[in-house]
Amino acid sequence: MQRVRHPNVVLLMGAVTKRPHLSIVTEYIPRGSLFRLIHKADAGEVLDKRRRLRMALDVAKGINYLHCLNPPIVHWDLKSPNCW
Description:
Keywords: Kinase, Transferase
Protein name: Serine/threonine-protein kinase CTR1
Strand order of the largest sheet: 1-2
Shape: globular
GO molecular function: ATP binding; protein serine/threonine kinase activity
Distance between the termini: 16 Å
Radius of gyration: 15 Å
Order of helices and strands: EEHH
Low-confidence stretches: none
Strand content: 5-15%
Number of strands: 2
Mean pLDDT: 89
């Protein structure tokens, strides 16, 4: 995963493999997940149709990149809380 470099894929920095603290370490994303952005209670930022379509296209580009790797990487749990 550390060889994965794409503007629409979060950068993997490392992993913790000692139980019970299994986790991955990624780059910091200050705006949070796509879910948070879409469902913010204080929606001071309006997400018009064009912006939402742009976000969907960005997600699709990232997934396409992963699927085209050799061997391909499959996300397995693609949903807005997992899109950063």
